[in-house]
Amino acid sequence: xxxxxxxVDHGLTGTNRERPGLHQALAxxxxxxxxxxxxxxxxxxxxxxxxxxxDELTQREVKLNLHDPTDxxxxxxxxxxxxxxEFESDLIRMRTREGMKVAKAKGRLRGKQPKLSxxxxxxxxxxxxxxEQTVSELEELFPVTRSTISRAIxxxxxxxxxxxxxxxxxxxxxxG
Length: 176
Prior knowledge:
Elements: H1 20-28, E1 34-36, H2 40-43, H3 47-59, E2 63-65, H4 72-105, H5 118-130, H6 135-141, H7 146-156
Helix pairs in contact: 5-7
């Protein structure tokens, strides 16, 4: 591992791109290196200059490290990036809601489709009312779970037959 080199411009502001320490630091960077800048305002004082330096480093395959969470600028950068991420998430959520409203207005948004068609559900309820099938047998006949059968029976207002080997308890009947 190569020794770390520190380049400093004493007495010069970041407004001037012609700084010996910056020039030496940029010249010393090779592909695969990482240039660590302790404060962004030491690298550049304007957005165009900062972009130009970052673009130059990127073209030369040099990484730029600007994040120091203990530094006020590092905290600011972290918070700005976190805000951008939250903003993107909010935009996606907003666009999804808008898209769903449009789809609903056009009649394309129908929600979750039922497991059984109306005909299948009516047949299931008929078999249940007649006491011809137990709930376990209905689960095998129709590719659904016990809770789906319970909801179908509840929607139909069906009562358990007196002779049924397996009655569905009222507590098992839910919505959905």
